[in-house]
Amino acid sequence: MGGRFVHIVDDDEMVRRSLAFMLASEGLQTTQHDSAASFLAALPELEEGCLLLDLRLGDANGIDLQRRLHENGSVMPVVIMTGQADVSSAVAAMKEGAVDFLEKPFSKADLLTALRSACERLAREQKGDIERDNARHLMEQLSPRERQVLKGLARGKANKNIAFDLGISPRTVEIHRSNAMRKLNVRSLPELLHLAFRAGEMDD
């Protein structure tokens, strides 16, 4: 996990310092925030990383902060820290997308395991972003008519139905489909549709 950032949000200064020291010994860089408000204020300037979040903060509930992040489009993986009495709330946080939750006091090994899972999720999301961007770049090679044919195929329509909708012949639909497959370097309809969905081409 070397080189990853972990953003610690906890209103207890001693806890923040202890966690930062522990993670630094593992080669992890950290930032420390004493409230939800201070974290949100710093968020635009923070490096990509994972969020180590105390469930009970002085100015907010950790779940509320999670929801706020989602509303802002953040995909930062979250690991929740909780006191034993807050397990039910931690489960609610998991439903909101938290990677894991740790009951205080927790061991260094448990902390690193949870953060490793969070870092792996972040890596998968970053990979997904790259794949989506690549797919969108490929889709830009298609003509407007080829995209219309592709959308018809994605909706399960036969060539003759797509032809009727677009006011062209079934043979012309087949030509557009063939051209799209050639431009995108795919060999089958499932490959073609998979690439289209990855690019978000079918969202509308």
Task: Explain what you see.
Residues 135-200 form the HTH luxR-type domain. Keywords: DNA-binding, Phosphoprotein, Transcription, Transcription regulation, Two-component regulatory system. The chain has helices at 13-24, 36-42, 62-71, 87-95, 108-139, 144-154, 159-166, 170-184, 189-198, and strands spanning 5-9, 29-33, 49-54, 78-82, 100-103. With 204 residues, it is an alpha/beta fold. The chain has two domains: 5-130, Rossmann fold (3-Layer(aba) Sandwich), CATH 3.40.50; 141-198, Arc Repressor Mutant, subunit A. Helix 7 (159-166) crosses helix 8. The longest helix has 32 residues, at 108-139. The chain starts with a strand and ends in a 6-residue tail after the last helix.
Mean pLDDT: 84
H/E element order: EHEHEHEHEHHHHH
Shape: elongated
Largest sheet, strands/sense/barrel: 5 strands, parallel
| Class derived from helix and strand content | alpha/beta
Uncertain stretches: none
Tell me, what is the CATH class of the largest domain? Alpha Beta
Counting structural domains, the number is: 2
Work out the radius of gyration.
Answer: 23 Å
Number of strand elements: 5
Domain Response regulatory: 5-119
Keywords: DNA-binding, Phosphoprotein, Transcription, Transcription regulation, Two-component regulatory system
InterPro entries: CheY-like_superfamily (IPR011006), Sig_transdc_resp-reg_C-effctor (IPR016032), Sig_transdc_resp-reg_receiver (IPR001789), Tscrpt_reg_LuxR_C (IPR000792), WH-like_DNA-bd_sf (IPR036388)
Domain HTH luxR-type: 135-200
